[in-house]
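<backbone_tokenisation>
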Amino acid sequence: MERKFKFSVNEFYHIYNRGNNKSTIFFDDTDRKRFQKLLYVCNGIEPVVFKTIQGLPLDKIEKEETLVSIGAYCLMPNHFHLLLREKKEGGISMFMEKFLTAYSMYFNKKNGRTGKLFEGVFKAIHVDNDEYLKYLFSYIHLNPVKIIDPLWKESGISDKEKAKQYLGNYPYSSYFDYLGRARGENLILNKEAFPEYFENSKEFEQFIDDWLLLKEFQGLPLELETK
């Protein structure tokens, strides 16, 4: 389906997609780590030959001009979320094509499958106001709570401390980066391209706490919500 808008330089977008027929797109940590690495290496104007960098940490991989700025991301069993800012004309489309093609080829080869991995063209929402943009930092980072508490958005959190502990041990999002934990995946983000909503990790942690305390999480009406 054709988009109702065109991506524009310096604008913010919530990008997401799920597996075809809601199928799982991450079977193990190897898949998730490959996805994270591709977020970094595919964000550039040069083509990627993954076998030449497969064993390298991110800080040893040379990159020049990037296509997008990544502000947040989260991997779920059958879908993913990205918060992007377009840096150059056509940047988001180019990045997503490189990125999703590379992961699909890896996943299909590893699992001896053929055909589409993702459900059609990736989905995109133009983030056109500041309140909405800040909201996405909670929405994206709190997604993993659904893994242990599937109805928390509708019914409220059943165990806040358990949820926080789970998030604190879930490395497949940018949550760790906003908590200030040092790791190679820190390089995926370009926080400077996004408003400075949180002066430090404590402010971010309090922001997440505030959302967890809500009796009902007013989630975005996204088609990909898993059930």
Remarks:
- The beta strands are 12-18, 68-75, 79-86, 123-127.
- Helices lie at 29-41, 91-111, 130-142, 145-148, 152-155, 160-168, 175-178, 201-212.
- The mean pLDDT is 90.
- The chain has eight helices and four strands.
